[in-house]
Design goal:
With 336 residues, the protein is of the alpha+beta class. The chain is built from 12 helices and 13 strands. The longest helix has 21 residues.
Length: 336
């Protein structure tokens, strides 16, 4: 027997030993209650936490309500990935199928983006949805660049980087002073925000979310905040965190007027040195997006999938599918 319940407050769930243990086992920011609560508080998402309890464990599915019977991951542009949490050794398919079967009572579409494949999540989620009676399609929606360190030192890793990157570091690295802070500093954060404002990045999506995240990670000892200076002035900034053997590269920016110094390259090298030679991470995760500069630093790419589930018998499903078909036909009709 599997019981399904809906939660609006994860703090109450954490007080329960069983779901509390499930949440305490998180090894990445995107699997923690604090991350989801930050998205709710600062990014305007409406949470829908679904918990399934079975005889051999439980599953927690963090979703967001987006209206009219549609749910999506409790995630946004800051999230590298999204996946359900399942107790080790539990029947994950049965637990998640119970969640998705219950969700079908009130929802007709689930659009689950940024689901990873390397840990089996995409396959698991799709199988559970099909078992629960949903019509499911899977497509690749993004890419995730990573570096398996494989026991190398930074010097050994750097020797395998592209020649132009190594040449840039050799020619310009000495002109840029880099600092890596393991704790939050209001002064350093002001420098980060000033660099970001003067960069090519445009307006930050949610500065309050990012600052609160950096403060919490600094308090936990997981923060690696990098600032690069030329002549004492901040010209590049990067926000990394380190957790459970992985370094996550969250944000990076440099001043456009300092491009000639290649401060971003120098700062990335400084942070790589820190996480490889001092933190001894096993993996560096550069998040989503297939930017060319990520390929210079990373060695592998992993897909991120979109799992779309539709409730077959719901009239809204057919209306939505018809609308999509018409939008696809319209350009062809105009060309004809």
């Amino acid at each position: 027997m599997i019981a399904v319940e809906y939660l609006s407050d994860l703090r109450k769930a954490c007080a329960d030993p069983a779901p509390g243990a499930l949440l305490a086992g998180a090894e990445a920011p995107f699997d923690r209650a604090e991350w989801w609560e930050g998205l709710v508080r600062y990014c305007g998402l409406t949470p829908l936490y679904v918990l399934a309890r079975g005889p051999d464990g439980m599953a927690l599915v963090p979703l967001a309500r987006i209206g009219n019977g549609v749910a999506a991951p409790l995630a946004n542009w800051y999230s590298f990935r999204w996946r359900p949490l399942v107790s080790p050794g539990a029947d994950a398919t049965a637990l998640l199928a119970a969640v998705f079967r219950d969700l079908a009572r009130h929802h007709w579409r689930l659009a689950l983006d940024h689901v990873p494949a390397e840990d089996g999540s995409a396959t698991l989620v799709a199988a559970a949805l099909r078992e629960a009676g949903w019509r499911v399609t899977i497509s690749q929606g993004d890419i995730n660049h990573v570096l398996p360190v494989a026991g190398r030192t930074f010097a050994e890793y750097l020797a395998a980087r592209p020649g132009p990157l190594r040449s840039t570091l050799k020619r310009k690295g000495g002109r840029v002073a880099c600092e890596v802070l393991p704790r939050f500093s209001a002064e350093a954060w002001a420098a980060y925000e000033a660099v970001y404002a003067a960069s090519w990045k445009g307006e930050e999506g949610s500065p309050a979310f990012l600052r609160a995240f950096a403060e919490a990670e600094g308090e936990a000892g997981r923060l690696r905040l990098g600032i690069a200076r030329v002549g004492g002035e901040p010209v590049a900034a990067q926000l990394w965190t380190v957790e459970a053997g992985t370094a996550f590269i969250h944000k990076l920016a440099y001043r456009e007027d300092a491009r000639a110094f290649s401060p971003g390259t120098a700062l990335t090298a400084a942070l790589m040195t820190r996480v490889i030679d001092e933190d001894h991470v096993d993996l560096v995760d550069f998040g989503t997006g297939d930017d060319a500069y990520k390929r210079d630093w990373m060695e592998q790419a992993r897909p991120r999938f979109r799992v779309l589930a539709l409730k077959p018998a719901d009239p809204r499903t057919w209306a939505w599918l018809a609308g999509k078909a018409l939008r696809r036909l319209a350009p062809a009709a105009w060309r004809g």
